[in-house]
Amino acid sequence: MEKRLENFGFKNQKEQNPTIRDILETIKENLNKNDQRPVIHLGHGDPSSYPSFRTTPLAQEAVISALRSSQFNGYAPAAGIPAARRAIADYISHDLPYKLSQEDVYLTAGANHGIEILLTVLARPGANVLFPRPGYPLYEARAAFSNLEVRHFDLLPEKGWEVDLDHVESLVDENTIAIVIINPGNPCGNVFTFEHMHKIAETAKRLGVVVIADEVYGHLVFGCNEFMPMGIFGSIVPVLTLGTISKRWLVPGWRLGWIAANDPNGILDKSGIAKCIEKYLNITADSATLIQGAVPEILEKSTKDFFSETVTLLREAGDKCYAKISEIPSLTCPHKPEGAMSTMVKINLPLLEGIDDDMDFSLKLANEESVLVLPGSVVGLKNWLRLSFAVELTTLEDGLERIKAFCLRRAKK
Asked: NCBIfam families attached here (predicted)?
């Protein structure tokens, strides 16, 4: 039997790019077990374990109420419970010049599940899709499983991580089906202006590609630019929006997200894409019915005070991160974070002794200072770092001081 299974070629399968989890686990193995200091994790985007980043009690009570009602113990419809889809459609429509219906919303088991659905549905022989660099590596991993060709366009750090639209145009051919736009930016912490988003929409229309708008960090903004959903431009180009309660409500483990079709011209229906999404939902996992049952109350009754407290915390942490990095000669943060929960930092390797690249930096930092950061090569930029700042402020300060000490100790004399 073993020989027969070997004939199927599982061992010959193309190696996938390592995920964030893979790399962080590798770095953790390099921690010095004799270091008595607490490990400081600045490498992931889950702040929920920190006391300052707890969800609103109202959300917890909504889940308890849904549980006690006994109305949400069974299977949900493939696209989601109608009341939950309706509530999410209303929530999204607050920021749009038109109104979504519940039929425009499909519930998912988090945003990663939404990525899986969209890339699987859009995958066709020979098709390609455009991803930002730097970006979120799960897109590449999912595309590889669907045999979907990936083409990367650059984000420009000197322009606040705007999309290089000239680069986008050079990549598109007759097989390009979609472009992914992440706003607020993960991993860069940028927030696009209305004007830039309008240019993106016009470019996508001219090139004939669908926009996948990753808005997982929607409304978590604290700089000069307001959050504008890409769906505003749905009358220009079809926009498939990925959203979730994970980040704004600080509950990534609840695994509830959505795909919203922002398409008042009905192009997604006419092309058959909407029907393909519906069909795929019939054969994939659902988000937990219990959380679906709680969502209408969570969306309707969460207070502005809860949201503003979270944004204030992120602003303070982002400012602290940017200011401290500015004190370290061998590191450069080209753009002060304005949204989301992370920022990109460039390593000036010629100024450091005994550091080969971003992975080497991260491994040695973990070993010498018990601080975990994500190598930028994982998100598409070699010799950069992604720093997540959504942690307790005192923990962040300690972590940044350790990074500074590491860099000063490694500085070339």
From this structure: tyr_nico_aTase (TIGR01265)
